[in-house]
Amino acid sequence: MCGSKPSVDTTAQDQMREDSRLAREREEARQAEIDSGVEQIDGIFSGFDQGFFDNYRNEILGVQTPQLQDQYSNAQDELTFALARAGTLNSTAAAQRRGDLSRDYATQTAAVLADANNATDRFRSTIDAEKGDLITMLNATADANRASNEALSRSQNLFNKVPDYNPIGEIFGGFAQGVGGAIQGAQNRAAWDYYQSGGSRGRSSARTVG
Amino acid sequence: MCSPLAAAGLVASTLGGAIQGNTQAAYVDEVNRQNQIAFDLSRDARLAEQDRQDGFETQARDAVRDKAVDLSRDNFDTQRAEKSQSFLDYLSNSQPQVTALDPTNHAASDSVKRAISAETSRAAGEAQQRIKALASLNSYGGTTTDRGLGIGDTSDFLSILGGKRRGSLGVASQEQNIAPAQVTPGSSFVGQLLQGAGGLASYAGPSGLSGLTNIFAS
């Protein structure tokens, strides 16, 4: 008919949709930045691989194993001297002592390895915690460059970290002392037997009456 | 009887009303149409966001499910056994031989030689038993560390995913907030004119015509 059509103004709506489109673009860019940051952090920390941790453990073993070997060598010497002093160098008791010492040495070698493994596990956890911090920071800031720089700095510190180890303590003390005590006991018993027997050698209960 | 002027006024008034009514109806239709367009756009944005959130949800569930499988009791025992074996394998290359032999190599009697052999066997057996126990014990540390690190990695992944989900939801609320276009009613000048003139004519009638004539004449 003769009336004109209603007019439609989409200016405000178009503006809102454009704002939304830009916001979506920014959000997608933010997410891509986070993905990129994670990739960079993973790349920087990829140096901490199995080979790195094997070396870390071997460094600890390289320090502690010679200490253990020295202690074992000294204990062997002390045991040999003690057995020689007691005149039991070639005896079943000596064999038992040597077997015990050798057993303890083998067991302590394993204990040193266990300690080195534990120290390596602690270091792995430390590295993972650093990485977790970086991911959290990246998630909050969506700044891949900053996360990457921080990852480089922290990984450098971690690479420079001296392996965590404690000097091994006294491991084989007491082997030679035990031998001395046993010998002294044997000598005391012999003296007592001698006294009981009225001065005669041997363990015979017969007395010679002159 | 109705005068021709009054009749014409009635027709003009009716026609004007119809024109105005149509204009108003077109306005209402357009408002409804624009509301529907805004609603559809908002719904499209909502559905798109649902798809995105479903995608994130699937990724999160997959990650948790995979980790749950890793963390099963059976896997724990398997991983421990592997760690324990790895420990023993490492030692097999570096472990000193257990022996009761005299390192000074003094001559020994037969009975002492037998004792040395027996003590070597006993000490080696005890060492093996203790080392095995140590390997088993140590495997707890290694395995729990591995699992802890694995949980940490999954946690990092879920944290990133959570950030993406929140970010996307924030934008989605903006995307869904779409105002309808502004609609301005169309002009019905002709209708208003007809209605006005018709009303005037109807009101004036035959007597009013002379009055009008006089007004225009003066």
What does this protein structure show overall?
The complex is a heterodimer of chains A (210) and B (218). Chain A has 210 residues and is mainly alpha-helical. Chain A has helices at 11-45, 50-85, 92-141, 144-159, 175-196, and one strand spanning 7-9. The longest helix of chain A has 50 residues, at 92-141. Chain B is mainly alpha-helical. In chain B, 85% of the residues lie in helices and 1% in strands. Chain B has four helices and one strand; from the N terminus they run H-H-H-E-H. Chain B has helices spanning 4-70, 73-94, 110-176, 189-217; one strand spanning 182-184. In chain B, helix 1 (4-70) packs antiparallel against helix 3 (110-176), helix 1 (4-70) runs antiparallel to helix 4 (189-217) and helix 2 crosses helix 3 (110-176). Chain B is rod-shaped, with a radius of gyration of 49 Å. The two termini of chain B are 30 Å apart. The model of chain B has no long low-confidence stretch (mean pLDDT 87). The interface between A and B is large, with 63 and 82 residues. Strand 1 (7-9) of chain A pairs antiparallel with strand 1 (182-184) of chain B.
